[in-house]
Amino acid sequence: MKAYLAGVTAVLCAVSSSAHAADSAAAARVLNVTFPAAVETELALSGGPEHLRAGATVYVYGAKGFTKTREGTNGFICLLNRDGFLYGGTAFKPTCWDPEGAGSYVPVMLRTGEMLAAGKSADEVKAEIAAGFKSGKFHRPARTGIAYMIAGDVELAADGKVTKTQFPGHYMMYAPGVTNADIGYARGKSGASDPSIFDGGAGGADLGYLIAVPHHGP
Which of 109, 141, 158, 198 pairs with 92 at a CA distance of 20 to 30 A? Predict the structure, then answer.
């Protein structure tokens, strides 16, 4: 009986792993698309507050990944992040990182975009990023900071028009290694506007965020 249960467990794990891989591959196909530079620039900048947009550095996604198309003056970097495929997500994420994130989070997002464009699988990306943290190529932020995502996680049409907002606009404070248990967040019990930890993107727990969604309404 123990041997039988062990076999069933192994099969279920294999099926789950296969299904996850299929989800990630399908999501990668959705996200591995290019938009006109002007459209992508506008989408990338929509992640940040209006007063920071004019001075932000911008990266635009193309056939080989992200390319810097504008050098900024205020230390913020904005791009249309596509790392959702690592967890099977299909939303585009307009994001603007502060100067601390520019040297820690952004290099990981750029490499993830490069590997997405090259057709690498989610598992391959995760393995390389993990190895990069181990070797010192990538590193956690040295202090707390913020990444703005005030446009939310969005679905886009072929022309770059927003068709749906999957997750509302929010703020992401750097919280590497922090868990939901650490902050008392309980799925199904905490409120929609309660802060929570997200560590499913590129870099995993090494680049975890504390997400705060502005409270709207009573």
Answer: 141
Identify each DSSP E strand in the chain by its residue range: 57-62, 65-70, 77-81, 93-97, 146-149, 153-156, 162-167, 170-174, 196-198, 209-212
Mean pLDDT split into 10-residue runs, the chain, 218 residues: 32 35 88 98 98 98 98 98 97 98 98 98 98 98 98 97 97 97 91 90 97 73
Domain definitions of the chain by residue range? 29-212
The count of other CB atoms within 10 Å of the CB of residue 143 is: 7
CB 84 within 8 A of CB 31: yes
Which distant-in-sequence residues (6+ apart) come within 8 Å of 107 by Cβ? 138
- Please say whether the beta carbons of 138 and 129 come within 8 A: yes
Q: Give CA 215 to chain center in angstroms.
A: 22
All residues at 6 or more sequence positions from 48 whose CB lies less than 8 Å from its CB, including other chains: 56, 76, 78, 96, 148, 150
Cβ-proximal residues to 158 (8 Å cutoff; 6+ apart), any chain = 33
